[in-house]
Amino acid sequence: MEITWINYLVGMLVSLAAWFVFLWAIRDGQFRETEETARRMLENEVSEEGADGTEKRA
Question: At the top level of its lineage, which domain of life is listed (predicted)?
């Protein structure tokens, strides 16, 4: 029966730690502008090929 209480306490401590990490991430700005990051990933810079065959970025 003692192991049940130990498991309960460990579970509560892990849950509390996860909650504090989540709050830290929100305060640190980890969840800001998630849509902009996805759009930026999909944007490709238009590249032009030079006269010598090398690629030049615009």
Answer: Bacteria
Say if CB 37 and CB 29 are below 8 A apart. Answer: no
Distance between CA atoms of residues 36 and 29, nearest Å: 14
Contact 40, 52 (CB under 8 A): no
For residue 40, the enclosing domain spans 2-57
Q: Please state the domain count of the chain.
A: 1
How confident is the model over 37-52, as pLDDT tens digits?
Answer: 777 777 765 445 555 6
Q: Hey, which bits of the chain come out as E strands?
A: 47-49, 55-57
